[in-house]
Amino acid sequence: MKASNFEVHHRKLLHQLLVGAAFLTYLIDPEDIVWRFVKNSSRPHELERALFLAATIAICVGAVLCTWVSAHRKPEGNSSVEPRRRIDGPQALGEILYAIGLASLFPSSGFLILVLGETLRVLRLVSRKGDPSRRGSEVQPNATWGSAFRIEAVKWGILITMIVFVITLRDRVAEYLAAASFLIGALLNAPFFNRSLGNDKSS
Fold it and tell me: In a designed cystine with 161, which of 83, 110, 175, 177 is the match (CB 3.0 to 4.6 A)?
């Protein structure tokens, strides 16, 4: 089933709602999925660190794939702009790997909400590939590595968060860094920031 126009035009909003829903599961279950499965083992902290390292690698691969796609995406047709909404195979894989890595921080129910929700959302967007009704929606000039890193700023911030968390295994540190990542990413992709960048480039 193809994504609706609402899903196409509100990708970030739907992703944020899924992350928010996953986070709210802490209200009914205080243990993240990793700790739930390793706490009764003979070496829980070593296993916890290993599993979060695997999650960090998934986030890293996801961030690299999504950033690479954003930096190399070509304009469609004869247009001089490229749709930011387009989802293809490498980006779909990147989004799903990122969701799996991020979901490791949430309780079991939150993990399922985020991974299943993101997988369904991304696959529905993939099915819209080539749909002419998407063209021209939320477009940007030909991408550069700078704009690609800005677009995917949250993913890179979460990657840094996970690296620090794997080293320290301190929940509070991860919470502060994750909150800062989402805030900085939101600011970098806010409409007023994009307009200011466009004014600087045209001056």
Answer: 177
